[in-house]
Structure formats: structure tokens, C-alpha cells
Amino acid sequence: MPPRVLVTGGGRGIGRAIALRFAREGATVTVAARSSAQIDAVAKEIDAAGGRGMAANMNVVDHGSIEAAVWRAVEFMGGAIDVLVNSAGAFQIKPLDKMRPADFDFVLGTNLVGPFQVVLECLEYLQESEQAHIFNIASIAAKQPFPGNVAYCASKYGLRGFSDALRLDLAKDNIRVTTVYPPQVDTHLWDEVEGNFDRSKMLKPEVVAEAIFRAYQSPTPITDLDIPPAG
């Protein structure tokens, strides 16, 4: 049976690419994000690609929003979740002396607290699946520091630890947990970043999506999915 997939941050970028990759295999996919227009458009793309798509509004820093979106997703997907992809993310390049507490809270809330809340809300529905798999989209910044990335690196290092411990907790339920470590990817997150960045040399979201789909298909569990840079 084609998988039932929930993708946070599914309105654009890596999340959208993942949703469409699973859709091409006939999957039932719920895309969740804050922007109704974006996820509505992606849901239509999922249908056109051969899957079944639904849009669900979700803000990963708002537990009530997560609860409502997961309820809608599970109802649409028949009572279970086979694949959960935590792709919603926030990114800032800002040196420490320019940061405000609100900046740190926003990045940590989106990149670390958000996945925790989503997993917690989805857990009972993942346990209903015989092929449950959680993908947490981290970053190369979960393994090495970069200047101006105090909040981002803290969130992604934290997500790495969360995934490692989560894997141990969920082993009894045979739920796979894969942490994904992409390099720089050409997504909307760079639109608001100041500086000169050659986005033509960055990885495309579709490369990340393909790697995740293959990891899902792998008969051997893949705990850490390192994706090499473009070129």
C-alpha cells in the first residue's frame, strides 16, 4: 500500500519537494504549513503527480494548531501515519551582539520545539503503522558551527540529539528515525538573508527529497542521512 505521509513545512522548498516525490509513488500526502495559499497549491500538485493531497494549516510553535492539523491529516489518511517529515524550519544569519532573545526563541521554537511537539502529537498514529518512519531535517550545521549561526546551530545540534534519543525510545515500536543532514540548499530561506551567496551552486530540494525517499525504501534502517553538496 502506498504510504500515508505528513510533511511539515510542505508549502515550499524541501518540504514541497518531498511531498511531490512521495506523490509520484501514489502516496497519500498531507502538507502542513502556515500559508494556506502555498499548501493549497502543493496539494493540487500532489494530485496531479499521482498521489492524494490535502492541505492542513499548521504553525509548529503553536500546540493547538498542531493538534488540529494532525487530526485533519489522520482523518484524511485513514487513521494512521506511515511517514512523518519534520521539514518546517527557520534560518537567520545574525551575530550574537545583534540578536534579541526573541530571535533565539523563534529559531529554537521552530527547529527544535516544533518537531518535538509534532512527533508527540503524531505518536499514537505512527504506532498504528507497520512501516512508520520519522525524518527530521537537520543540517550540516548540526555537525559543525558557522559564524552568525548561534541560534541556528543550537537548534540543529539539539535536533540531532532529539533524534538520537527518540530513536532509542521508539525502538520498541519499530518506528524508524532518520536524521537528515543536507548542505546548503537553494530554498526560500535564503531570500531574506543579507550577503552575496551563489545559490546556483547550492543543492536543489529535489536531491534531498530523492535521498529521503530512498532511505524510506531501504530495507536496512538509516539513522543518519548525510547528503553531499552539489558538484
Summarize the structure in words.
By secondary structure, the chain is of the alpha/beta class. It has a single domain (4-223), classed as NAD(P)-binding Rossmann-like Domain (Rossmann fold, 3-Layer(aba) Sandwich), CATH 3.40.50.720. 43% of the residues lie in helices and 15% in strands. It is built from six helices and seven strands, in the order E-H-E-H-E-H-E-H-E-H-E-H-E. The chain has a seven-stranded parallel sheet, sandwiched between helices. Helix 1 runs parallel beside helix 2 and helix 3 runs parallel beside helix 4. The longest helix has 26 residues, at 101-126. The radius of gyration is 16 Å and the shape is globular. The model has no long low-confidence stretch (mean pLDDT 94).
Q: What summary fits the major beta sheet?
A: 7 strands, parallel
DSSP strand count: 7
Spans where pLDDT lies below 50 across 5 or more residues: none
Overall number of structural domains: 1
**Average pLDDT, all residues:** 94
Order of helices and strands: EHEHEHEHEHEHE
Form type: globular
CATH architecture: 3-Layer(aba) Sandwich
Provide a brief overview of the structure:
With 231 residues, this protein is α/β, with parallel strands linked by helices. It has six helices and seven strands, in the order E-H-E-H-E-H-E-H-E-H-E-H-E. The protein has one domain: NAD(P)-binding Rossmann-like Domain (Rossmann fold, 3-Layer(aba) Sandwich).
